[in-house]
Design brief:
Helices cover 43% and strands 19% of the residues. The chain is α/β, with parallel strands linked by helices. A seven-stranded mixed sheet has the order 1-2-9-6-5-3-4, sandwiched between helices. A hairpin with a 2-residue loop joins strand 10 (321-322) and strand 11. The N and C termini lie far apart (43 Å). Bound molecules: nicotinamide-adenine-dinucleotide and zinc ion.
């Protein structure tokens, strides 16, 4: 079992990574000096796969199974969760366990932040994206009608336990989408990790458990380093938005149905690689390497039919917008550079370039 410690102003916590770790969770919690959770929250997909088993092993009642989907990452899910906890007698010194992808960990973490003004929570992320990104770093929250993650709290879990074996049931597209965030982490903080990113992976079995563990641990280390340096996103943490400015705009412009988040970020990262190369911030060789790794993950849904005007509209509404425009993160040969202003014309040009191949 691997261990990455994450420093946080609200209390340090460990991310444990291994295969088959779920079956050992009760003894792992005891070893970590953590009380067993009183309640497990999962969703209707992951609950039957892992949540129920875990709840039984931890002597918890059957898990609350939230509706599955980004569209349910909203206030009603927080209310359902808190009401469920109240009904189960969860109190201020209890802890709760979230088992699922990023939607579950974001929602449950946020509910834990506000339930009785904050209770302890533990995370068992089961999607690759949640393992390498969503469950680590303390950001929790839900979406509003107007946009994603518009309400939330910094409320880190007490422990993140990653069992890479759960990736065996994750759909191929979801697996690849998670790999994009792994590439992002590698580019930001550890170029050696690029060599560990599996290429053309269609299923969990295409890579050894040790290979998955090494890749996940590498990405978690980068995220841990970044959030330890800047937990509340005053500077360094913005690096994690590599590929996300245009990515978010593409997701929004296509109604959140055409592209998975990771797929949109892959397009967004290819775009900033080209943009940075055109600006002389990134060598042609490095740009080709970054684009090459992303393309080697497998085909992406096309964006040819996407209206550039709609994308630009969404860019103009970006959460990271201030009076000088949207601040982009651009890749450099050995990492990233923050707060780069990209005008609408430049964004349109690179988008058209992607659409024409
Ligand atoms: N808090 C953060 O710092 C942070 C960072 C990145 C992303 N996020 C958030 O994470 C969310 C995306 O996370 P995601 O990609 O995990 O999406 P998700 O939670 O919707 O999971 C994707 C799908 O896979 C299913 N699933 C999860 N694990 C599975 C498994 N082991 N086997 C079978 N199916 C499984 C889920 O039920 C869902 O249908 C977004 O809401 C995003 O905003 C948060
Ligand atoms: Zn992301």
């Amino acid at each position: 079992m691997h261990r990455v410690d994450v420093a946080s102003a609200q209390g340090d916590y460990a991310v444990l990574v291994g295969e088959g770790l779920l079956d050992r969770l009760p003894s792992i919690l005891a070893d970590e000096g953590l009380a067993a959770p009183s309640v497990v929250v999962s969703n209707e997909t992951v609950g039957p796969l892992y949540g129920r088993r875990l709840a039984a092993a931890l002597a918890c009642p059957p898990p609350l199974e939230l509706a599955d989907g980004e569209e349910y990452k909203r206030w009603p899910a927080v209310e359902t969760t808190c009401s469920h906890w109240l009904g189960r007698g969860v109190h201020r010194s209890s802890s709760v366990l979230a088992v699922g992808g990023g939607v579950v960990t974001d929602t449950v973490g946020f509910a834990a932040a506000v339930y009785q003004r904050g209770i302890r929570w533990l995370a068992v992320p089961t999607s690759l994206l949640a393992m390498v990104d969503a469950a680590v770093g303390g950001k929790t929250g839900v979406n509003l009608e107007q946009g994603k993650n518009l309400v939330g709290a910094f409320w880190p879990p007490r422990l993140v336990a990653v069992d890479v074996g759960t990736l065996a049931t994750l759909e191929e597209r979801e697996l690849r989408a998670g790999l994009v965030e792994l590439v992002k982490a590698a580019w930001i903080g550890d170029h050696d990790l690029l060599a560990l990113v599996p290429r053309r992976v269609a299923r969990y079995a295409d890579l050894s458990p040790a290979g998955w563990c090494a890749a996940v641990v590498g990405a978690v280390r980068v995220k841990a380093e970044v959030v330890a340096a800047d937990e509340r996103e005053a500077g360094r943490r913005k690096a994690l938005n590599l590929g996300h400015t245009l990515g978010h705009a593409l997701e929004a412009a296509t109604g959140y149905t055409h592209l998975l988040h990771g797929e949109a970020v892959a397009w967004g990262t290819v775009a900033v690689a080209r943009l940075a190369a055109q600006r002389g911030l990134l060598s042609q060789a490095a740009a080709a390497r970054l684009e090459g790794v992303l393309r080697s993950l497998g085909p992406l849904p096309g964006i040819d039919g996407v209206s550039p005007e709609r994308v630009l509209d969404h860019l103009a509404r970006d959460k990271k917008l201030d009076d000088q425009g949207v601040a982009w993160v651009l890749p450099t040969d050995d990492g990233v550079v923050l707060d780069q202003r990209v005008g609408a014309e430049e964004a349109r040009r690179v988008l058209l370039e992607l659409q024409t191949g």
